[in-house]
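Module 6 notes. Inverse folding takes a fixed backbone as the condition and produces residue identities as the prediction. Think of it as a translation problem where the source language is geometry and the target language is the twenty amino acids. Below is one complete input and output pair. Work through it position by position during the lab.
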């Protein structure tokens, strides 16, 4: 249990709760859930420019990271096609992947196919089921993809001013504006309570909020004097109690609750909002192809990690279909903006390619 680990090292309840957010981020779990300690380890084990456990912002927004990867690939001769949905993986008579078929019927032939879509999309939608072992399909169907995350992107006409650290008179960002700000994290009991509400189908009455202001570090993201605020919130169930859908009324009611919480820490925040985009778990699934809205393509619980990700005997990026590889967050070592799964899968695919 994460709670036990934190109790061994720290006395301050706010500090323990703040650290605990990285153990439950993106996970339908509480600090008291067995195995939650690993998710914290997963988020602090890396490094940034030699600084262990450090995180950073991407200049130009997260889309700039995709553009950088695309530019590097294009420089090596890659051809990139966008807005071209894949219908299914093309298989030869020998059962080997030979490319993909697009929704418009176009066939794109290749000796190898790497998929960074989720295991569910890759194997349950894009791959002919008769080519997959039944026990493998069953295992993919059983992956826990529950997600507690509702992402809210906000545009504001001024920098939030927090009661605990009021803004400077010149309105310039202060050090805390350039960090991750955790709200409703005064103690781990609050996180557990928020989790419990969601497991019963109710959005948290006092949601866990991780607030970032990327424009405080990268002014080009917003007009002068304005800012963009990223709210990573939980817990929200994928399906509301009674089977109610996440309609506009439910979305706005939850967002209003989140904004009320922020207002208590930073009076005037609600009045500064000039636009917001609310992405509930079903929205994250529909827009980004995240199963259940899960940002990791599947829970980061101990039964879905290491040799069991995405399924036992298939953690090495190869799949039951020769020539088809899984390289996204659903593969080992799991989610996070680090590229480890893609790098490892590429090495395996290159090794096989040399043997063709």
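Target side of the pair, the amino acids:
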């Amino acid at each position: 249990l994460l709670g036990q680990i934190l109790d061994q090292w720290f006395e301050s309840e706010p500090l323990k709760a703040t650290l605990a957010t990285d153990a439950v981020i993106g996970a339908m779990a509480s600090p008291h859930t067995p195995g939650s300690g690993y998710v914290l380890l997963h988020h602090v084990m890396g490094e940034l420019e030699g600084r262990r456990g450090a995180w950073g912002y991407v200049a130009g927004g997260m889309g700039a990271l995709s553009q950088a990867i695309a530019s590097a690939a294009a420089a090596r001769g890659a051809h990139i096609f966008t807005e071209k949905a894949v219908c299914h993986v093309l298989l030869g008579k020998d059962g080997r992947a030979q490319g993909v078929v697009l929704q418009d019927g176009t066939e794109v032939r290749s000796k190898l196919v790497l998929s960074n879509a989720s295991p569910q999309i890759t194997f349950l939608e894009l791959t002919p089921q008769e080519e997959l072992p039944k026990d493998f399909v069953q295992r993919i169907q059983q992956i826990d993809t529950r997600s507690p995350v509702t992402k809210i992107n906000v545009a504001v006409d001024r920098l939030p001013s927090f009661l605990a650290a009021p803004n400077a008179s010149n309105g310039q960002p202060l050090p805390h504006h350039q960090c991750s700000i955790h709200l409703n994290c005064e103690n781990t009991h609050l996180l557990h309570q928020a989790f419990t509400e969601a497991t019963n189908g109710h959005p948290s009455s006092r949601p866990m909020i991780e607030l970032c202001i990327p424009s405080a570090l990268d002014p080009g993201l917003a007009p002068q004097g304005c800012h963009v605020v990223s709210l990573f919130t939980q817990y929200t169930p994928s399906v509301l109690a009674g089977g109610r859908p996440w309609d506009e009324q439910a979305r706005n009611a939850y967002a209003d609750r989140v904004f009320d919480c922020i207002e208590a820490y930073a009076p005037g925040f609600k009045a500064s909002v000039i636009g917001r985009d609310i992405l509930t778990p079903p929205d994250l699934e529909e827009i980004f192809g995240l199963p259940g809205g899960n940002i990791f393509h599947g829970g980061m619980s101990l039964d879905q990690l290491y040799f069991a990700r995405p399924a036992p005997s298939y953690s090495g990026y190869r799949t039951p279909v020769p020539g088809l590889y899984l390289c996204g967050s659903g593969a080992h070592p799991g989610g996070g903006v680090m590229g480890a799964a893609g790098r490892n899968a590429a090495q395996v695919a290159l090794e096989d390619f040399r043997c063709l």
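Reference fact for the lab report: Residues 62-144+294-355 form a domain with the FAD/NAD(P)-binding domain fold (CATH 3.50.50.60).
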